[in-house]
Amino acid sequence: MSLELLSQLEAKIKATVETIELQKMELDEEKQKNAELTAKVEQLQTELNSWNDKVSGLVGLLNEDIDA
């Protein structure tokens, strides 16, 4: 191999390594966003369950008043 070909190969390898590093950083960012969204979904699900319990309780009270 000529020195020029080795230089070209080295440049391509460096570019590939840089691309891989950037993709790893992007993946880490996406994992963080995913974790945040998962936590938000869990919070919203808890709130929804709470509201459902409250509404069910109120409907139960209405039914008791109607039956009485």
How would you portray this structure in words?
With 68 residues, this protein is an all-alpha fold. The chain contains one helix and no strands. It has one helix at 3-67. The mean pLDDT is 94.
Mean pLDDT level: 94
Major sheet summary line: none
- Low-pLDDT residue spans: none
Proportion in helices: over 70%
* Order of helical and strand elements: H
Helical/strand content category: mainly alpha
Question: How many strands?
Answer: 0
Number of helices: 1
Distance between the termini: 96 Å
Rg from alpha-carbon coordinates: 29 Å
* Estimated share of beta-strand residues: under 5%
**What overall geometry do the principal axes of the alpha carbons give?**
rod-shaped
Q: Could you give a quick summary of the protein structure above?
A:
The protein is mostly helical and 68 residues long. Helix content is 96%, strand content 0%.
Helices and strands in order:
Elements: H1 3-67
Q: What distinguishing features does this structure have?
A:
96% helix, 68 residues
